[in-house]
Design goal:
The protein is α/β, with parallel strands linked by helices. The chain is built from twelve helices and seven strands. The chain has two domains: 6-93, lambda repressor-like DNA-binding domains (434 Repressor (Amino-terminal Domain), Orthogonal Bundle); 97-293, Endonuclease Chain A (Endonuclease, Chain A). Strands 1-7-6-5-2-3-4 form a seven-stranded mixed sheet, sandwiched between helices. Helix 4 (60-69) runs antiparallel to helix 5, helix 7 (135-144) crosses helix 8 (153-166) and helix 10 packs antiparallel against helix 12 (280-293). The longest helix has 19 residues, at 75-93. The chain is elongated. 32% of the residues are buried.
Length: 294
């Protein structure tokens, strides 16, 4: 688990970082230095650094030579790494609508991953998930965060537009599968005032009827729970080689979890919290009760 901040002018992607980490592990296991690895592919040590940190797309010939140099004889291992490299190159070439958004780099990467995902599991403590927010709620939230990057009214409107565009994935021929567990506090937090929250809660009730959306509420009475420390989102992909990626925002940084063991741990925390939550029908009843109380 780590916070990733690529250097200016360089692009680091989740798949490339995973691939680079695998190559670094293989190099360490073989006892080779970065300079030796660079010489094996007729490159500079700087290129190996960039490859191992996921800053550059990787060529299949380089991966083959490095694996041979590191003593990797299992063709399945080499093939898996080359498949990761292929997926990464395809993702880098994609010209998604999010590329011109006002989001900082890490959020742009998140949106790109979400757009390519087949399933998202999200746990939220105090906010309605972005995929479920109404324009009024999203705008009020952006204004309330105006002490940060969103002070310009035009940027705020662009932010709202981007968030609404993301929600197109909820419908269509191959809709995104979304499993959301939300703490009761998020339903009672009056973002934008009573009218905005009533509209937001009504919108949640409508989205909960979609076959690809599963929405559960963790009530206050559940007490302590495994996910009490903070919100996170688990992003899953259709490709067999693409391990689940976990995204979590803190006050000061963004954390990406990019390996199987840690991703599985987050999934376990999510499942345990979901089991403590209300069933979907009971969740909808609580949402409607809170809506009427506001």
């Amino acid at each position: 688990m780590r916070s990733t901040q690529p250097r200016q002018g360089q692009v680091s992607t989740v798949l490339a970082r995973r691939l680079g980490g695998e190559l670094l592990r293989l190099r360490d296991a073989s006892g080779k230095t970065q300079q030796q690895a660079a010489e094996s592919i007729n490159a500079t040590g700087t290129k190996i650094v960039k490859m191992e940190r996921g800053w550059v797309p990787m060529r299949d010939p380089d991966i083959r030579v490095l694996c041979e140099f590191y003593g990797v004889e299992d063709s399945k291992v080499v093939g898996r790494l080359m498949e990761l490299a292929k997926l990464d190159r395809e993702r880098r070439k994609a010209k998604g609508w999010w590329q011109h958004s006002p989001h900082p780099g890490t959020l742009s990467e998140y949106i790109a991953l979400e757009d390519a995902a087949s399933r998202v599991r999200t746990w939220q403590l105090s906010l309605i998930p972005g995929l479920f927010q109404t324009p009024e709620y999203a705008r009020s939230l952006a204004v309330s965060e105006g002490v940060g990057p969103w002070e310009d009214p035009d940027e705020i409107e662009r932010l709202v537009e981007i968030r609404m565009r993301r929600q197109e994935r909820l419908r269509g021929t191959h809709p995104l599968q979304v499993y959301a567990v939300v703490w009761e506090a998020a339903l009672r937090q009056l973002i934008g005032g009573p009218e905005t929250m009533r509209g937001q809660l009504q919108h949640l009730l409508e989205l909960a009827k979609l076959p690809n959306v599963r929405l559960q509420v963790l009530p206050f009475r559940a007490g302590g729970h495994p996910c009490i420390t903070g919100p996170f989102t688990i992003i899953s992909f259709a490709e067999t080689e693409a391990v689940d990626v976990v995204h979590a925002d803190t006050i000061a940084s963004t954390v990406w979890v990019e390996n199987e063991a840690d991703s599985a741990a987050y999934a376990d925390f999510f499942d345990r919290t979901a089991r403590l939550s209300l069933a979907q029908r009971d969740s909808a009843q609580l949402i409607d009760t809170i809506r009427q109380e506001i």
